[in-house]
Amino acid sequence: MIINKLIAKNWRNFQLIDVPLRERQFIVGPNASGKSNLLDIFRFLRDIVKVDGGGFQKAVKDRGGVSNIQCLATQNVTEVALEIHIAETSCSSATWRYGIGFRRETREDCDAYLTHERVWQEDQLLLDRPDADDTEDPDRLTQTALEQSATNAKFREIGKFLRNITYLHLVPQFIRYADKIQGKIIEDDPFGQGFLHRVASVHPSTRRSRLKKIEHTLKIAIPQLEKLEFVHDKNTGHPHLQARYEHWNSTQAVHQEEQFSDGMLRLIGLMWSLLENDSIVLLEEPELSLNLGIVAQLAPLISRMGRDRQCQMLVSTQSDVLLKEGCIDSSEVHLLLPANEGTTVMPFSDFVEVGALLENGFTIGEVVLSRTRSEKVEMLSLVE
Ligand SMILES: Nc1ncnc2c1ncn2[C@@H]1O[C@H](COP(=O)(O)OP(=O)(O)O)[C@@H](O)[C@H]1O
Ligand SMILES: [Mg+2]
User: Which residues fall within 8 angstroms of residue 49, CB to CB, at 6 or more apart?
Assistant: First the structure.
């Protein structure tokens, strides 16, 4: 199952988003255009249905409250609203539709109140709030039906689906120095602080098979690499990744993650997460720290792994090289176009001149990046 349509009103720097989504969808835009904000919509929906202490109020609070979420570019915001369509494929009609609206209303310690919550199964409306019970007890509007097992029996499948959404924005230093930092791990570990423990926690045979696949890809990027292994430190018991290299001096031929390059760590983390998940994976700018040769291979890699595991990949990027690959369809790319009145999300295929440019030998990357580059970017070099 995938989310094949997203509608959002007044979410962060977007007044309105209304776009279809493919199995592999690239979200392309310059700095501060809202790539992370857009991906955060899916994390928000996941947070509502989290088993261990999630919920609508916490999801709003974690984002600084409704006043932080609602779009500052909209005058007199009446509500923030989200709707998703869940379907078998990007071309099928929706099996489920889920929509919520909420607004700010400071009462006691609650900040967010639902203005509506609706669930459709195919064309049948299963839930339409506020209902009679909500009118009788308005406090009920501080919780979604999705997070309450007593009220969501008919559409529990939606919650199960959203719960598996994974977000990944690996920070190599967190993996490398996890033991030394020993800090509090951020909920859901989006930055990879607990990555090595995640690797340690899976069954040894699964771990071996995943590392083998990763090793295979790494060998293409790093030809001297001979083997990627998982080990436990004999003294401390801490988990480590270890790479063996073909090296003229065999005493120096083993490196642990502290010595891995940023790009190598990000690639390992990226592939592990793709192998680990079979729902929706949100990837933030996967091109960071990778050399251009590898970036050029990311789109087919993501696509292959998505197909194998039948999951959806929503990928934010600023890289024209990542979008160079010939088999990216123009409907797989959405452009974020920032303006004073907020950012608009434009399916790349909606630009009239795109077909002609592609036929004349331009790659999607070249056309996209020329549209998203800031006109003032050259002025950076003039800053004294
Ligand atoms: N509620 C809001 N209304 C309008 N703009 C917002 C709101 N919240 C955040 N922003 C703006 O969104 C931008 C950051 O978007 P972000 O998703 O981090 O960009 P990107 O990931 O593309 O670099 C910032 O310019 C910030 O000011
Ligand atoms: Mg970002």
Answer: 146, 147, 158, 159, 162, 163
Answer yes or no: is the C-beta of 306 below 6 A from any ligand 1 atom.
Answer: no
Using a 6 Å cutoff on CB, does residue 30 contact ligand 1? no
- In the block, residue with structure tokens 């509608």: 7
Quickly state the pLDDT bin for 156 (edges 50, 70, 90).
very high
Q: Where are the domains of the chain?
A: 168-278
Give the angle 83-88-90 at the CA atoms, nearest 5°.
70
Query: Burial of 361 by CB count in 10 Å (0-12 exposed, 13-18 middle, 19+ buried)?
Result: exposed
Please tell me if the CB atom of residue 37 comes closer than 6 angstroms to any atom of ligand 1.
yes
Q: For the chain, give the number of residues.
A: 384
Nearest to 284, CA basis, from 243, 255, 313, 325: 313
Residue 277: the pLDDT is 77
Helix extents (H) in the chain? 35-48, 56-61, 66-69, 132-136, 156-163, 172-176, 178-181, 195-201, 204-221, 262-276, 292-309, 354-359, 364-372
- pLDDT above 60: residue 29: yes
For 85-103, b where at least 16 C-beta lie within 10 A, e where not — what string? bbbeebeeebbbbbbbbbb
Residue 204 has pLDDT above 90, yes or no: yes
Please, which residues have CB less than 5 A from ligand 2, an ion? 35-36
Give CA–CA dist 87/68, Å, rounded: 31
The answer to whether the beta carbons of residues 27 and 315 sit under 8 Å apart is: yes
Atom of ligand 1 nearest to the CA of 39: 17
Q: What is the pLDDT of residues 79-131, one digit of tens each?
A: 999 999 999 999 999 999 999 999 998 766 678 999 999 999 999 999 999 99
Nearest to 114 by CA among 86, 150, 89, 138: 138
Instruction: Report the separation in Å between the CA atom of 37 and the middle of ligand 1, taken as the mean of its atom positions.
Output: 6
Residue whose Cα lies nearest atom 24 of ligand 1: it is 32
310-358: per-residue pLDDT in tens? Answer: 789 999 999 988 988 768 888 999 999 999 999 999 998 887 777 777 7
